[in-house]
Amino acid sequence: MQEAGSTSREAMSKVDTAWLRMERPTNRMMITGVLMFAGPLQADRVRALLLERFLAFRRFRQKAVLGVNSAHWETDADFDIDWHFRVAALPGAAGKAELERFVSELASTPLDPSKPLWQYHLIENYQGGAALIARIHHCYADGLALVQVLLSLTDTAPQPEARAELARTWLKRDRGSVLERLLEPMQGGLHKMVAASEKTWAMIAQMMADPSVAAEFAHEGSEITRELAIALTLADDPKTGLKGRLGVTKRVAWAEPLPLAEVKLLGKALDCTVNDVLLACAAGALRGYLRDDGEDVDGLTIRATVPVNLRPLEHAKKLGNHFGLVFLDLPIGEPNPLRRLERVAACMRDLKGRRQAVVAFGLLAALGMAPAALQGPALELFSRKASAVATNVPGPQQPLYLAGGEVRELMFWVPQTGSIGLGLSILSYNGNVHFGVIGDHKRIRDPDAIVQRFNGEFEKLMLVALMEDWSDDFGAPDAAATLARFAED
After folding, report:
1. pLDDT per position as a tens digit, 12-66
2. H helices of 293-384, where?
């Protein structure tokens, strides 16, 4: 943890600078999280908790100051906790729909750049309990780190006897997650890309100016250079309702929790990971949403950028951005849910041995070093190649408490970059999986129509898997195929 100190100004890393520069009216670079509680919370206890634990991270007393060619952190001499911690109440029934609308308004509203870029809002009347909403700018840290920062506010008992280090149950190495599967082959190349970010920018500029140069690099370059060239020459994502001009209004929604044990059981039965299952369900939900919206999606594949952690998970509470991105195929044109899962799993296996995430990290460092006027075109070039951002964070598998209140549910959303208008978030907590969507209102009129399909897609996979197991045991292979066809849309 970064202890409080007297440093008033320090340089911002190139990667964090890139995220600060990405701020646009059409895509606010905020990570937004919601903690929902079974009972009420006392505002004075939450405020004291933020002073004690959240502000123990020195960075959160600092403003992000963007200059012409660089950025720096500067201690806010006029820091006021009451600006950053607000208390509010929901109107009407004060239920899920009202909370989703409130969070949507916050996700559409910029943070004040003259102050440290974060705020907490305590909702005192949510479903007989309370909710705590956090908004933190991406330049402070990546999503994985900020989830751990939020969890550092919690305890493992309602009334802990004394403040002590929390059990890091949510930081155990998850061999089935996208983060861990992709991490190990990349560590060597990561340091090279960071050290060579200036050279990386020179290569990007050259490839953008002349696509034939990119093709040559892809054919003859080193492994990392080839990955960069392949990313630059990747075809734009197909035109769907998800792509197009963005607005300034965002909408969020989240699904009812899904039992994690059932997801693990299904993944084991189908010889794939939990992450494969969840992303396949998300692809199925998008397919249904687009079809109901009148789109012809048969045979269509879109891409999602998936953040990949590039540091050990036990270091996740260190601030700053330490992740890359990979392009994951979402086969929304595949009507059979089982085949859809197989294709997602195959794509994940293919990404495992590649260096896409390292290249993306080096690209972000290079963008932070490049002239600000050139960052926009480069960012747009890459954002055209995907239709969504998909994030999966493993959370703690035990109940947690904040200011004496039990955390019932967790949800979070990371920002989208450039012209991407859809975000998919998956987070596990206390035996459940939570799925949420954030969408640009011009592109996604009703995000709830997506999240309502998520659990149904999981149920389809469960039915097909059970029937395949039954057909193997009783010699009726046609039954599984028949059910799979029945499960198609």
Report:
1. 988 898 889 888 899 999 999 999 999 999 999 999 999 999 999 999 999 999 9
2. 337-352, 356-369, 372-383
pTM: 0.84
Rg, Å, the chain Cα set: 22
Q: In which domain, by residue range, is 420 found?
A: 1-489
Q: What is the CATH number of the domain that holds 161?
A: 3.30.559.30
Q: Are 200 and 362 in contact (CB under 8 A)?
A: yes
Helices assigned H by DSSP within 142-196: 143-151, 178-183, 187-195
- Tell me how far apart the alpha carbons of residues 455 and 263 are, in angstroms, rounded to a whole number: 11
How far is residue 86's CA from residue 106's CA, in Å, rounded to a whole number? 12
CB 263 within 8 A of CB 433: yes
Three-point CA angle 483, 488, 489, nearest 5°: 140
CA dist list (Å): 181 to 230, 263, 309, 345, 389: 21, 18, 10, 12, 18
Our count of domains for the chain comes to 1
Helix axis angle for 337-352 and 477-486, nearest 10°, is: 90
**pLDDT (tens digit per residue) in 391-446:** 988 888 899 999 999 999 999 998 888 889 999 999 999 999 999 999 999 999 99
Q: How far is 268 from 413, CA to CA, in rounded Å?
A: 28
Got the DSSP string for 202-244? Answer: HHHHHHHH-HHHHHHHHHHS-HHHHHHHHHHHSPPPPP-TTSS
List C-alpha distances in Å: 162 to 43, 55, 372: 20, 19, 48
